[in-house]
TrEMBL record:
Keyword match Coiled coil: no
Compositionally biased region (Acidic residues): 458-472
An annotated GO BP: axoneme assembly
Protein's recorded name: Radial spoke head protein 6 homolog A
UniProt KW keywords: Cell projection, Cilium, Cytoplasm, Cytoskeleton
Subcellular location: Cytoplasm, Cytoskeleton, Cilium axoneme
Presence of keyword Nucleotide-binding: no
Residue ranges, compositional bias (Basic and acidic residues): 330-341
Cited PANTHER family: RADIAL SPOKE HEAD 6 HOMOLOG A, RADIAL SPOKEHEAD-RELATED
Domain of life: Eukaryota
């Protein structure tokens, strides 16, 4: 079966066969770093990777994908094991035109969602008005409608394609030789729920995720959320390989850049460039247990589920003068909801990563203690078992993940408890259930509530008796 799937890929492409992409776009894809046989050689030294036959088949399949999709970069991300099938994953970047087209569709969807929400609010307000009119005819006064005590948090919008958690586009297949399936963009809500659950992958993209809290999507969305989390926590590179500055700038441009940098000091840096003057550290520094010579080159995902914080209450924002007055009056306190979420910036050293109950987040070793001049530095993530990175003391390094897609937990997984049932109404005599009275209590209540004898009738009878006595 595998041979039948790979035979079409091994044929020499005919010049008459038309590709679905522009020939110039095919040249944009850098396949020099995707020599899977070379990577297989390094992976074998580090004790990682896939068999040589699978690595070769992956390289052929990747070259076929370039001819059908508008890509500018492609990389083998790794493999996630499932119960029935496995996932082979590719990490790619699309062209600017494709990103623009996807973002236009996203804006149209957001506009439709906003219109639907406005129509729903109008419908609710109209129904409340009708209910109010009908309630005026009811003589009995009902208790007020209870207000919910749980604060409803607005779902932050997803980040646009080509930025943040959706900066990369991922393709997956269950077996090498199958057609590649593009995963959808991830949403902040999916990432937040994925952090609270632990579900094994089945290998079926349409599998329903039955968990608590409810996951908004199928396994294809859960897979995309886990890939985003793993990438944000395990994508690392040697110190100095990437930089924020372009080394080709002149002195005048550097001065202008420094002036702009002072003005925009609070702006979060979201992009970087490859350092053309990169000098790799020596092996002694790369295997240092302090992990100061390795950095993260993927943005940190905030608790909100985004890489850039979204203000849920934009109306709370005030100007600087009012903020100073508020600080003087209230002792420098800011209005509630103004505190933005922050995280470590790009290219942060691994030495600043937090440990998990005395377990170091990273472990580093060499592939050979005998031939130190030719050995590799291999870094392993202890928080995400299956994530590795190697470098050959040169300009070649690679990240790979081969695991089950779950984060390490020092204790057994415990799902979140169900929320407490809220009381519909405040306890009071209007809604409290009373016990039925006994027969003696009812008879006593009847006697106590008998009407008193009319005094007027007694006086009239007395007057009649007196009149009869006088006549006699």
């Amino acid at each position: 079966m595998l041979a039948k799937k790979l035979i079409p890929f091994l044929k020499i492409p005919d010049s008459k066969e038309l590709s679905t992409t522009d020939p110039e776009d095919e040249l944009l894809v850098d396949m020099s770093r995707n020599d899977m046989l070379q990577l297989c050689y390094f992976f074998e030294q580090a004790g990682l990777g896939l068999p040589k036959s699978e690595m070769f088949s992956l390289m052929v399949s990747m070259k076929n994908l370039i001819r059908t999709e508008p890509l500018t970069s492609i990389r083998f991300w790794g493999k996630i094991r499932g119960l029935y099938k496995n996932y082979y994953i590719l990490e790619t970047e699309l062209t600017e035109e494709e990103y623009a087209r996807r973002n236009e569709g996203l804006e149209a969807e957001e506009l439709n969602v906003a219109n639907d929400e406005n129509l729903e609010l109008e419908r609710i307000s109209e129904s409340q008005e009708i209910e109010g009119e009908s309630d005026t005819k009811v003589p009995r006064k009902l208790p007020p409608i209870p207000s919910p005590t749980v604060e409803v948090q607005l779902d932050p919008p997803p980040e646009s394609s080509g930025s943040g958690t959706n900066k990369k586009v991922y393709y997956i297949c269950n077996e090498i030789g199958d057609e590649w399936t593009q995963l959808p963009d991830v949403t902040p809500q999916q990432i937040r729920v994925a952090r609270q659950i632990k579900k094994s992958f089945t290998g079926l993209l349409t599998q329903e995720i039955i968990t608590y809290p409810h996951f908004p999507g199928l396994e294809i969305n859960y897979l995309r959320a886990q890939i985003a989390r793993i990438s944000a926590g395990t994508q690392i590179s040697p110190l100095g390989f990437y930089t924020f500055k372009d080394e080709g700038f002149g002195e005048e441009e550097e001065e202008e850049e420094e002036a702009e940098g002072e003005e925009a000091a609070d702006v979060v840096k979201t992009s970087y460039k490859e350092n053309r003057k990169y000098e790799p550290p020596v092996l002694r520094d790369l295997i240092d247990s302090s992990m100061s010579f390795w950095v993260h080159h993927t943005m940190y995902i905030l608790p909100q589920g985004r890489t850039i914080w979204w203000n849920p209450n934009p109306t709370v924002a005030i100007d600087e003068a009012a903020e100073e007055e508020l600080g003087e009056e209230e002792g420098g306190k800011q209005p509630p909801g103004r505190e933005p979420e922050t995280g470590p910036p790009l290219l942060t050293p691994l030495s600043e990563d937090a440990s998990l109950e005395a377990i170091p987040p990273w472990s580093v070793r060499t592939s050979s203690n005998i031939l130190s001049d030719y050995s590799l530095a291999v870094v392993r993530s202890n928080l995400w078992p299956g994530a590795y990175c190697f470098t050959n003391q040169g300009k070649i390094f690679q990240n790979i993940y081969i695991g089950h897609g779950h984060k390490f937990m020092s204790h057994n997984f415990t799902p979140l408890p169900l929320p407490y049932v809220e009381q519909d109404y405040i306890l009071g005599p209007e809604i409290m259930e009373m016990t039925d009275p006994t027969g003696e209590q009812e008879e006593q209540w009847r006697i106590d509530h008998l009407p008193p004898p009319p005094p007027e009738k007694v006086e009239e009878e007395g007057e009649e008796e007196e009149e009869e006595g006088e006549e006699d």
